[in-house]
Design a protein that fits this description.
This protein has helices spanning 2-10, 14-50, 56-80. It is an all-alpha fold. It has a domain at 35-84. The longest helix has 37 residues, at 14-50. It is elongated.
């Protein structure tokens, strides 16, 4: 009997798995969006500088700001998101 009790305690229930996986999927989507946004801004900055656009420096500064700002925002979302 003690073997079955220890097995049940070690395995999470279905409701616990669903709640934690929903939160992690949400955070993964935000992280992927952040990576695409930052990479896109750097690619746009490179294209702008090679084609001699007037605002190429502004786009580069925006990419640098996004490199700092986006991970901080994702971390704040992770902190303040309800854990259910």
């Amino acid at each position: 009997m003690s073997d079955t009790n220890t097995k049940n305690k070690q395995e999470p229930t279905k409701t616990q798995e669903n709640k934690s996986s929903g939160r992690s999927v949400f955070l993964r989507i935000f992280a992927i969006f952040g990576i695409v946004l930052i990479a896109g801004l750097y690619i746009l900055s490179l294209i702008a500088s090679l084609s001699d656009w007037e605002n190429s420096f502004g786009i580069f500064v925006g990419a640098l700001a996004a490199t700092v700002f986006v991970p901080i925002m994702i971390h704040l979302i992770k902190i303040f998101m309800p854990k259910e």
